[in-house]
Write a structure and sequence with these properties.
The complex is a heterodimer of chains A (250) and B (167). Chain A is mostly helical and 250 residues long. Chain A contains 11 helices and no strands. In chain A, helix 1 runs antiparallel to helix 2, helix 2 runs antiparallel to helix 6 and helix 5 runs antiparallel to helix 6. Chain A is globular, with a radius of gyration of 18 Å. Chain B is α/β, with parallel strands linked by helices and 167 residues long. Chain B is 22% helix and 25% strand. Chain B contains 4 helices and 9 strands, in the order E-E-H-E-E-H-E-H-E-H-E-E-E. In chain B, strands 6-9-8-7 form a 4-stranded mixed sheet. In chain B, strands 3-4-5 form a 3-stranded mixed sheet, covered by helices on one side. The model of chain B has no long low-confidence stretch (mean pLDDT 92). Classes of the chains: A mainly alpha (250), B alpha/beta (167). At the A-B interface, helix 2 and helix 6 of A face loops of B.
């Protein structure tokens, strides 16, 4: 079923790529607790990607998770541009994490009612884990947004870049109608609307402005395989060990 | 012939007993039984099937545990043992047994309180200290040394501690 696979892939690719980005903080976190937090979230995200690929493998006759993660070409990836950007400084990583995880937790909330049973089950499971990710982001947005002049200015600058990119999360694919009709997923439009409400309220509480989006095409294309300039290098690095000797058992 | 292997009959209870000795590699005093990770067990034609309920989605121990369970149950005398990942049950920390919680505290970890399926921020932040029992504690970090732990601090005995976090 093409529609379900499309949904599984974009979710799995988002999780895999942002998980890879988070893992780049391992050993570099600004304080030990944050090093641990980003590394733990990376582990969660990559586990979520694995579980989503496994649904595609077991229920939709697809390749196994490793093949899907490591042996596709760039244009077969369906992740959004937001997750592809380099980690930047901590403000950028936290702003991105905040915008992404608020969408993620809502998506799984909606998917808990999906007619694809293994996905609905997984959604319920992952939802609890994502609470920790969302709380992590919320507490930093609040502290840094209403902290010093410098922390506030840095967070605002980070949101000015990440917010327009985050709209690419909700880029619609060719199967939106089918997904809704078959009650697989409530759709990107619904998700976008609730996300916007939640995110705007929290930004306001943190004394941050919701950036104006001047160019709505920014951050779009990922869902149809057109990516930012940053994805090729990431894939090159991510698959390096896998490609050393194909098919080897580790 | 059904459950008879080498002229002895192996019951489900014996399998359960064996599983008490399969320990979580990250908390070695806690067994898969204490953690509530064991689902249905069935025996047919000298083959045992054990359902294993995974904890955190990204828990790296699951393959290791499947292997350990297989070894332990095979040692009872079965011809084959299948350890099946059971995703039909959503694991949560309410599944940890009372004995399991005691063992967690003895190991030095704070314990997750029971919740109604939907745990709150207070559930996450409020932990009693595993060292002195005080509830005068604060959470320092949502993430700890393994996926299932958070980091806390006790104002009374002035010690940091980790806690098995509610899920």
């Amino acid at each position: 079923m093409q529609a379900a696979k499309e949904l599984l892939f974009k979710m799995a690719d988002d999780a895999l790529i942002i998980g890879h980005r988070h893992s780049e903080w391992t050993g570099l976190g600004p304080i030990l607790e944050e090093d641990i937090a980003l590394s733990s979230m990376a582990q969660d995200k990559i586990g979520h990607a694995f579980a989503l690929f496994t649904i595609s493998h077991e229920h939709f006759n697809d390749h196994d998770a490793d093949t899907l993660a490591f042996q596709r070409n760039e244009n077969e990836f369906k992740c959004c541009h937001l997750v592809e950007y380099p980690i930047g400084e901590y403000d950028f990583t936290i702003a991105r994490q905040f915008l992404f995880d608020h969408a993620e937790i809502l998506r799984y909330e909606l998917l808990a009612q999906s007619t694809i049973e293994p996905l609905a089950r997984l959604a319920k499971k992952i939802h609890g884990e994502l609470k920790y990710h969302v709380l992590h982001a919320n507490s930093w947005i609040k502290r840094l947004g209403s902290g010093t002049d410098e922390s506030h200015a840095r967070m605002q600058a980070a949101f000015n870049i990440t917010y327009p990119l985050a709209l690419g999360i909700f880029e619609e694919g060719p199967f939106e109608v089918e997904l809704k009709d078959r009650k697989i997923f409530a759709g990107e439009e619904v998700l976008h609307r609730i996300w916007e409400e939640n995110v705007c309220e929290l930004l306001e509480q943190a004394h941050l402005k919701v950036p104006e989006v001047k160019n709505p095409s920014i951050g779009m294309g990922g869902r149809s395989g057109y990516h930012s300039e940053f994805l090729p290098a990431l894939l090159e690095e991510m698959t390096q060990v896998f490609r050393l000797e194909l098919g080897v058992e580790w | 012939m059904v459950t008879e292997v080498e002229n002895k009959i192996i019951s489900k209870e014996e399998i359960l007993e064996a599983l008490h000795h399969v320990m979580d590699p990250e908390i070695p005093t806690l067994s898969v039984i204490d953690l509530g990770m064991i689902g249905e067990i069935s025996i047919e034609d000298a083959i045992a099937r054990v359902n294993l309920i995974p904890t955190f989605t990204a828990c790296p121990a699951i393959k290791f545990l499947q292997q350990k369970i297989r070894e332990k149950v095979l040692a009872l005398g079965f011809i084959n043992v299948e350890v099946i990942r059971d995703d039909s049950i959503t694991w949560n920390t309410n599944r940890i047994s009372e004995l399991g919680k005691k063992k967690l505290e003895q190991f030095g970890l704070g314990i997750p309180q029971r919740h109604g399926g939907n745990f709150s921020l207070e559930d996450i932040e409020n932990s009693s200290c595993p060292h002195c029992g005080s509830i005068n504690t604060t959470m320092n970090s949502l993430f700890g040394s393994t996926l299932c732990r958070s980091i806390h601090y006790c104002f009374d005995c002035r010690q940091s501690f980790e806690r098995f976090k509610p899920l």
